[in-house]
TrEMBL record:
GO terms for molecular function: DNA binding. InterPro entries: CheY-like_superfamily, NreC/VraR/RcsB-like_REC, Sig_transdc_resp-reg_C-effctor, Sig_transdc_resp-reg_receiver, Tscrpt_reg_LuxR_C, WalR-like. It comes from Nonomuraea aridisoli. CDD domains: LuxR_C_like, REC_NarL-like. The modification 4-aspartylphosphate is found at D54. The keyword Membrane does not apply. Keywords: DNA-binding, Phosphoprotein, Transcription, Transcription regulation. This is DNA-binding response regulator.
C-alpha cells in the first residue's frame, strides 16, 4: 500500500486529490495539512511513501518543508512531490535542489496524478523530457559549478549518472551501456549513495551543476 500525506493550503484541492487517491486499491491518504510546518508532524508520524506538497504556502512553504524532510535521516524513505500552479519555475528548481523527487502542476489529469504517485513511491524521479529540457536551458545561461563529487564515482557510475540526466530509465541505460538492467540500477544506486542524493532528480541536478553533462550550446 502506498501511503500519502497531502500538504496544501487549499482545502478544496486537498479534498479532490484525496477523493481521487483513496479510490485506488494500492494508495491510501493517511493525513492532510494546510501548511508546511503543520505538515511536518504527520510526515514524521506516518512516514508516508509520498508527500504531495504545495510550493507556496503560509508559515512554512513547500521548499523549506522539503528541505526539512530531506535533512531528517528518519524520513529518508519519504519522497516529496511538489505541487505548483505555474509549471517549471524558479520555485520548482529550488525544491528539486532541496530534495524533492519531482513536481506536478495542479491541473494534472487524474491518470497522470495516479501514475506520478506510483512513480515517486518507487523512488524514481518525476522528470519528463520537457522538464529535463528546462533544466538544460537553465544551465545554458549560467556558469557551470565545480565538479566536486565526480572523483567519488567510477567511470561507469559517471556514465550512468549522465544518462539519468538525459532522462533515460534504468532499462534504457542498460541498453545504452550494454549491461543488464540490474547492473544499471546498481550503478545508479551506488552513485546516489556516494553523492548523498535522495533520488534521481538530485542526480540530474548534480550532473549539470558538476559539469558531468554539458548543455548544448554552452
Amino acid at each position: 500500500m502506498i501511503r500519502v500525506v497531502l500538504v496544501d493550503d487549499q482545502p478544496l484541492l486537498r479534498s479532490g486529490f484525496r477523493a481521487l487517491l483513496d479510490l485506488e486499491d494500492d494508495i491510501e491518504v493517511v493525513a492532510e495539512a494546510g501548511d508546511g510546518l503543520e505538515g511536518l508532524a504527520p510526515v514524521r508520524r506516518h512516514l508516508p511513501d509520498v508527500a504531495l506538497v504545495d510550493v507556496q504556502m503560509p508559515v512554512v512553504d513547500g521548499i523549506e518543508a522539503t528541505r526539512r524532510i530531506a535533512a531528517d535521516p528518519a524520513l529518508a524513505g519519504v519522497h516529496v512531490v511538489i505541487l505548483t500552479n505555474y509549471g517549471f519555475d524558479e520555485y520548482v528548481f529550488d525544491a528539486l535542489r532541496a530534495g524533492a523527487a519531482g513536481f506536478l502542476v495542479k491541473d494534472i489529469v487524474p491518470e497522470d496524478l495516479l501514475h506520478a504517485v506510483r512513480v515517486a513511491a518507487r523512488g524514481d524521479a518525476l522528470l519528463a523530457p520537457s522538464i529535463t529540457r528546462k533544466l538544460i536551458d537553465r544551465y545554458v545561461t549560467q556558469p557551470v559549478a565545480t565538479g566536486a563529487g565526480l572523483d567519488e564515482l567510477t567511470n561507469r557510475e559517471r556514465e550512468a549518472v549522465a544518462l539519468v540526466a538525459r532522462g533515460l530509465s534504468n532499462d534504457q541505460i542498460a541498453d545504452h551501456m550494454v549491461i543488464s538492467p540490474l547492473t544499471a540500477k546498481t550503478h545508479v544506486n551506488r552513485a546516489m549513495a556516494k553523492l548523498h542524493a535522495r533520488d534521481r532528480a538530485q542526480l540530474v541536478v548534480f550532473a549539470y551543476e558538476s559539469g558531468l553533462v554539458v548543455p548544448p550550446g554552452s
